[in-house]
Amino acid sequence: MRNAQEEEPQDPQLVRLDNMLLAEGVAGPEKGGGAAAAVSAATSSGGMSPDSSLEHSDYKSKLSQIRSIYHTELEKYEQACTEFTTHVMNLLREQSRTRPVTPREIERMVAIIHRKFSSIQTQLKQSTCEAVMILRSRFLDARQGDDSPHTPNSTGN
């Protein structure tokens, strides 16, 4: 009989979010290792004017802020998950003095905790991806405005 917790596949939504954060240079082995690639991808449609250069550094600065906030929040999440899991395991050990607690019961409880905490991780990654997409959209919109400075506002205002 195989252990169901070890066989459980990773959440496909988390995999997609992780891939996007890696591609944008927010997540990865080096904090910000892919930031240059993300900026390069966002600016790849041509040469940059001096104004674009300022926007480019603003983009990098804001992406760096997003990355910093993401890593800070991810560390808090991991710490909270570890502390809560440790607390529950200590409670189960205390209970084992008055009733039998099987290793399988402990594994099951840990898996439940990790599943619950996974939704928090998903929310963190989703909001970070949204922040990057908004930043990228604004950066690309500003660049398009530089290419055609006399284009009327599309909102009609």
Stretches with pLDDT under 50, minimum 5 residues? 1-7, 31-46
**What summary fits the major beta sheet?**
none
Mean pLDDT, as a whole number?
Answer: 79
> Number of DSSP strands?
0
Main location: nucleus
GO cellular component, one term: nucleus
Subcellular location: Nucleus
Protein name: Pre-B-cell leukemia homeobox 2
Describe the structure.
- By secondary structure, this protein is mainly alpha-helical.
- The protein has a domain at 52-147.
- Helices cover 73% and strands 0% of the residues.
- It contains five helices and no strands.
- Helix 2 (12-23) crosses helix 5 (103-147).
- The chain is elongated, with a radius of gyration of 22 Å.
- It starts with a helix and ends in a 10-residue tail after the last helix.
- The model is unreliable at 1-7 and 31-46 (pLDDT under 50).
Short description:
Residues 36-49 have a biased composition (Low complexity). The chain is mostly helical and 157 residues long.
From the structure above, extract its key features.
157 residues, mainly alpha, 5 helices
Mind sketching the topology for me?
Blueprint: H1 4-7, H2 12-23, H3 35-42, H4 50-95, H5 103-147
